[in-house]
Amino acid sequence: MNPKIVVRAAALAFVVSALAVAAIEFGGRSDRVVGEGRGSPAARLSSDRFEAELARCRDLGEAGARDAACLDVWGESRRHFLGSK
Predict the structure, then answer these.
(1) Contact between residue 82 and residue 76 where contact means Cβ atoms under 8 Å apart
(2) pLDDT (tens digit, 9 = 90+) per residue, 11-31?
């Protein structure tokens, strides 16, 4: 068999399999809603307050280390970031 044909067939098989994997990966996400964003409006509002509190604590600087609310919000931020419960 001609080596050029074998190489072309292998390349075509690779491209077809890559497309099939991509179609399966992206096609199987029907449970997600387009435009879902950061969740429900209530969660978004809560998230906005959380971000505002983080910004307030950031602006406090060293005084934030003595602020109980800042310690709580930083702990929650760490739990969210690290994925622990």
Answers:
(1) no
(2) 999 999 999 988 888 776 555
Please identify which residue in the block is written with the tokens 């992206």.
26
**Positions of the chain with pLDDT lower than 70, given as ranges:** 28-45, 84-85
Place of tokens 């879902």: 36
CA distances from 49 to 21, 64, 66, 74, 80 (A): 40, 17, 20, 13, 15
Q: Identity (one letter) of the amino acid at 6?
A: V
Distances (CA, A) of 79 to 26, 46, 84: 29, 16, 5
Q: What is the per-residue burial (b if ≥16 Cβ within 10 Å, else e) of 40-73?
A: eeeeeeeeeeeeebbeebeeeeeebeeeeebeeb
pTM above 0.70, yes or no: no
